[in-house]
Each structure stands twice: as structure tokens, then as C-alpha cells.
Amino acid sequence: MTSKAQHSQGLLLFRLHNGRQFALGTLKIKELFPYKTITPLIHSEPGVMGAVTIRQQTIPVIDMAQVIGIGAIPQDKIEQSFILVTDCQRKTVGFLVSGIDQIIETNWKQIKPPAKALGKNVYITGTVNVDNELVQLMDIELLLARMYPDADNHTHVAITDLERERLKALNILVVDDSRIARKQLTDVLNQLNISFLVTDNGSNALDIMKKQASEGRPIDILVSDIEMPGLDGYELTFEVRNVPALAGAYIILHTSLSSAISVSQAKQVGADEALEKFDARELIASMLSGANLRVKN
């Protein structure tokens, strides 16, 4: 069986006003256009410059440099800047950046996780070497969580005692490279008092699944991000389905992308379900589908 998971990843390389280069996956970018006049908003959060109207939709515009701590873009550079419109976590938001370099194609295996020495409060999910320059992948989920801290904080899900007991009986593994996304996912399970294992990358997840299977407790439900450095969600799914001792897991892939493409690819590599993150009720409903399937079997 040949892997269908060798998906290239398009990256848009851009710069902030200090000259530092960053990258963002092209699938997360809805549109890119030169600076246009931004209408200020009253009582807006620091970093929110205002709003613009694009194709009859009004969206907020955020100064990316200010939010990540570099400082607001200088006034004399604003009119030469660009607005990146992202479609992520069911939010359409514009980010002001100073310059656009190029779009490149890479593979998730070429993207390395950020060094642990950087700490937890960095706005990057990985790094990649481009023309001998280390480029950092921007963590849009963390940016959005900092700007809209209450928007996705709906972790309460009502389920019956029977449904809770079905989930508690299962061995669940959660995988996501984004600290914010991991917290969102695990907060839901903690609120329901359901135990789980958690890790931050696909390679570790595969090792955990092999270890659990060897100890007689194979993973029953795997909840994994799609876009991860190293072994991404597609490749992790493919590897799991190719190992008989692991292949019985009910696999739920989730993505911050508002795109049917990711859902289609997830099904192609063997995932049972694919979700746009984050919706607590959809997550639990999918996990219950996996639990119910095990009861029937």
C-alpha cells in the first residue's frame, strides 16, 4: 500500500517591520491585498487597528507585530504594508504585515517543532529553513486566542451518564502542536471527567499508540490535528491504519481550516471523521460515534 499522505504544504513568506521573516500556510489565507484605509473602532483591544470592508464583508484588522510583542508598525510604513485575510477557527480576520516575499512548497516533514527553550508563550508552531534563513511558522490559533480570549471558551457539553461512562471506558489520545488548541480539546474532556493521553506531535503519538498496544491497551479514539510539523495528521492516520495492532482506532482529524479540501483528504487516508476546530459539541458527538461503534462491535 502506497502512502497518500505525502502532501506538500504551501507557505506564504512575509516580513514584519523589524525585517524578520515568518510563514503562514496558504490554506489558511483567504485573500491578500495591499493596504487600504482602515476605519478605527472605538473601545478596540490593543493591536486591533480597526476594520475594512472586503467584498461586502467587514472584518477586523490586527497589527500582527504589535500583538506578538515587536511593537506597532511605524506610521511611515503603514501605507506600504499588506493585509493578510485569514480564514481560521471559523473567524475571518485581517493581519497587517510589512512585506510579502514569496510562496514556497514544502513538506511537513521539513518543518521542525520550535525549541522547547523558547518557552510556551511564543507565537510559532515550527521552523523551516528557506535559502539558509530560518523561517518561523506563525501560530494563528494562539494569536486569535489572545485577541479573542472568550470566543472559543465554550467547553461545557451536556451528555448523559451512559454516554460519559462509554467514553470513560475508552483509551483516548489527543494530538495537537498548538498549545491553545490542545488546551481547548483537553478542557472539554476534563470538564466531563474523562481521562486521556495527550502529546504535541505525530511522531510521539505513533510511539504512544505502539506502546499502549504492546501493553494490551490499544488507543480506541485518536483525536489529531492535521497541520503539524514532522508527521502530520494525514501521515499519522496512514501509519496507524497500516499497523494491525493500531488500525482499530477511531480516528478524528481536526483542522483550523475552513475548507472541504482537508475533510476530503482526511477521508482518503483513512480517517473516520474530519472536523473544523474548534466546536466542543461536534468533538464530543464524533467521539461518541466512535464509542457507539465499539459497543456495536
TrEMBL record:
PANTHER family: CHEMOTAXIS PROTEIN CHEV, CHEMOTAXIS SIGNAL TRANSDUCTION SYSTEM RESPONSE REGULATOR CHEV. Pfam families: CheW, Response_reg. Gene3D superfamilies: 3.40.50.2300, CheA-289, Domain 4, SH3 Domains. The modification 4-aspartylphosphate is found at residue 225. This is Chemotaxis protein. The keyword Phosphoprotein applies. SMART domains: CheW, REC. Residues 171-292 form the Response regulatory domain. Residues 8-149 form the CheW-like domain. Keywords: Phosphoprotein. It comes from the Bacteria.
